[in-house]
Design brief:
single chain, mainly alpha, 2 strands, about 5% strand, globular
Length: about 90
């Protein structure tokens, strides 16, 4: 729940990215080194819970810790996965 709330807060913050980018401030990244597999698995689980009638399978192999903006990457993957569930084939 805490992780989901944190991601929701990040989504609200991301809504402000377009105005910031247009005003010349650019988009600020919050890079951190942590387990990207855990981040991705959490968002896959969130999308699965929201779409219990669909089966989502994933094979994630990232052998090392990488420095990324986990919230932004999770948002991007979540959008792609949600679009696939909404607009893709039932199976």
């Amino acid at each position: 729940m805490k992780s989901s709330l944190s991601r929701m807060s990040g989504l609200v913050e991301n809504v402000m990215d377009l105005p910031r980018a247009r005003m010349g401030g650019g988009i600020v990244l919050s890079l951190s080194k942590s387990d990207l597999v855990q981040t991705l698995q959490h968002l896959i689980d969130e999308v699965q819970v929201a779409n219990a009638d669909r089966l989502i399978t994933a094979s994630i192999n990232i052998p090392e810790i990488v420095e990324v903006d986990h919230l932004r990457l999770a948002q991007m993957i979540s959008n792609l996965l949600s679009n696939a569930v909404t607009h893709g084939a039932q199976n």
